[in-house]
Amino acid sequence: MNSSEWLQTILFFIILLSLTKPIGIFMAHVYQGERTFLSPVLVPFERLIYRICGVRTEEDMDWKRYATSMLFFNLMLFGALFVMLLTQHLLPLNPQNIPAFPWQQALNTAVSFTTNTNWQSYSGEQSVSYFTQMTGIAVHNFVSAATGMAIVIALIRGFVGRKTSIIGNFWVDMTRGTLYILLPFSMIAAIFLVSQGVIQNFNAYKTVPLVQMTASHREVTIPMGPVASQEAIKELGTNGGGFFNANSAHPFENPTPLSNFVEMLLILLIPAGLTHTFGLMVGNPRQGWGLLAAMLFLLLSAFGTLQWAESNGNPLVAKMGVSGVNMEGKDVRFGLAGSSLFTVSTTGTSCGAVNTMHDSLTPIGGMIPLSLILTGEVVFGGVGSGLYTMLAFSIIAVFVSGLMIGRTPEYLGKKIEVREMWISILVILTAGVSVLVLSGIAMVTPSAIASMANPGAHGLSEILYAFASMSNNNGSAFAGLNANVNFYNLFGSAAMLLGRYVPAVAVLAMAGSLAEKKHTPPSLGTLPTDRAPFVVWLTLVIIIIGALTFFPALALGPIVEQLMMAGRA
Amino acid sequence: MKDIKPAILLFIIFTIICGGIYPAVVTGLANVLFPNQANGSFITDRRGKEIGSALIGQPFSAPKYFWPRPSATSDFGYNTMDSGGSNAGPTNPVYLQTVSDRVKALRDTGVSGKVPADLVQASASGLDPHITPESALLQVPRIATARGISEERLRKAINDGIEERQLGFMGAPRVNVLVLNLELDRLSQ
């Protein structure tokens, strides 16, 4: 890394960490219904929404009602987008006369956006009308993010509650998350992105003559659209579905190094802030900082490894007399550090936006985003989902260390018992099992194998990445894989649904069970979970679980490819 | 079930706010504050006709123009209707042959020494408007011969066209190929 890249990276983390506390405090106020600087403007709106919808703010829900509300709401969102994709040719704001989706792809896409995955088996500029982008996909970007945040807030209430069955009101949490957090931040971010060159209009696509015309190509058609408003929430809500096929590599989505910097910040902002919200709500901010430290360590290690692997370049290309870093699948303006940091930020969270084509990374480089996804996206993690997965890891870490030192495991004053362990394991292993089983099925399905774009070990990596991405609701891809075939559209939908709703409902059940327990004050025998030794232990538990589950698969994919590449160089 | 009503109504309200009001307000503000950027940062010629976006690369293959990065978009390079990268894996033999052919094509124009990676490896967007300054300088002798302009003037044009790191440290230094080629056409007139 040159000095500019160091400066850019260090400044990024300084800004991120200095925003963590204020954002965390703000979100804690919002979800606890306390006054914030936005209250004078938004409280009347909030009350109006409750009155129209018949929501009674004082009416709290137990976990079952919270979970059924969440599931029903998500089912409705899915249905609306599914129908919209099948009928977009009949709907307004479609200047390019884009046709309807086939049902298999509509199913996959509607599941994808409802589950905050944003896996895309279509190309945005060719397949989606402005109306669908704006009132379908962008709305899902807000709502699926708010859902994830609501679930983690309910879990935190479970830790805080004492002998109660109540974990909050789903409708209130959804409204507050959207109105106070997602909308205002997106608005500011969108305007800033336009200043950098992200487009925002409803014009028809523009045809311009080429400067150098050839016999076969005299002009190109440049797509337009309301991009900035979607780009902002796409990053902020760790959604990641690109307006265009090239996603955040497209110059109209990410035109400058500064827009790239801001987009990376947006991806990590809420997940980082939520750790502090958690610390504040459980009454000990150090608990939150501890989790943040573990996340930060993993993110920096991933970034360092990726940056190293890519800066070495591709030895098979270097042999041809080519100098420099691996530039395949990277745009010049971001610089290597801007590409690498974006790649780890988007896969450590459940974002999945890309400014670099992960399929073209060097083998070890490509293993980094894959590993970040496979370990459950806890390196800052998706909005809400990252923190609740991290808390499940914490519970496992507490339990295992409790066994080792012979104490009753307790976390944040709550006894960890069989039920909590079952749920934590469900949260962490659902996606893992889904990845391995579905990748296995793909390897014996001819139509699934025919979708590979690259031969050999790399093809296995493509399939592994696809199911890792869908099962963990990430949405990025080793995009050479042709995912628009029935196999991936249908099995992928199943992976996304399992990966989202099994953990989500399990977490809510855990919230309910924790809330009913009495609070045990810390005693001499309690393992302190806000100290460095626990943070180190937690980090190890994450790495060990990830390594044990996936090492065999990674060995056959990226590691074999790396060895073959080194052997031929 | 009493939660059906809030579910339906809240969904409608969110769709109106997040899917209607929010993008409309952003569009309104963007077009007042940054009308050029909001509409695609188009470059116009002297008669005010739009000749391309400063942010979107175009294909160039004639010896008299600076060549941009390879583009892996379908049908033809820099196809704006299908942005994206090659997604070629680093050990894919077909990909390695492609890169080798690109290196050879450059060698055929008299390039010696190391070839910068950005000039033979395809971009992520397929529409990358930039190349590194080294990749531009590498092409100077070919263009000077094709146009009959001195290498000195070409180097100056490149130097004047370098976009430095943003704020001094963000991203990478680069030159915009479309802008530079329009400048070449102006110089030759």
- Quaternary state, please? heterodimer
Number of domains of chain A: 1
Counting DSSP H or I runs of 4 or more residues, the number of helices of chain A is 19
- The class by helix and strand makeup of chain B works out as mainly alpha
- Can you summarize the main beta sheet of chain B? 3 strands, antiparallel
Strand fraction of chain B: 5-15%
Mean pLDDT rating of chain A = 95
State the helicity of chain A in percent bands.
55-70%
Helicity level of chain B, as a percent range?
40-55%
Query: What share of the residues of chain A does DSSP label as strand, in percent?
Result: under 5%
C-alpha termini separation of chain B = 76 Å
Most extensive contact: A-B, 128 and 101 residues
Radius of gyration of chain A: 23 Å
Low-confidence stretches of chain B: none
Give the low-pLDDT segments of chain A.
none
Order of helices and strands of chain A: HHEHHHHEHEEHHHHEHHHEEHHHHH
Topology:
The complex is a heterodimer of chains A (569) and B (189).
Chain A: H1 3-31, H2 39-53, E1 61-62, H3 63-87, H4 103-114, H5 124-127, H6 130-160, E2 166-168, H7 170-196, E3 206-209, E4 219-222, H8 227-236, H9 257-281, H10 285-311, H11 315-318, E5 322-323, H12 335-348, H13 363-374, H14 385-405, E6 410-411, E7 414-415, H15 418-443, H16 446-449, H17 457-471, H18 486-516, H19 532-568
Antiparallel strand pairs in A: 1-2, 3-4, 6-7
Helix pairs in contact in A: 1-9, 1-12, 2-7, 3-4, 3-6, 3-18, 4-18, 6-7, 6-8, 6-18, 7-8, 7-9, 8-9, 9-10, 9-12, 10-12, 10-13, 10-19, 12-13, 13-17, 13-19, 14-15, 14-19, 15-17, 15-18, 17-18, 17-19
Chain B: H1 4-33, H2 35-38, E1 42-44, E2 50-53, H3 93-108, E3 115-116, E4 130-131, H4 133-138, H5 140-147, H6 151-161, E5 162-163, E6 174-176, H7 177-188
Antiparallel strand pairs in B: 1-2, 4-6, 5-6
Helix pairs in contact in B: 6-7
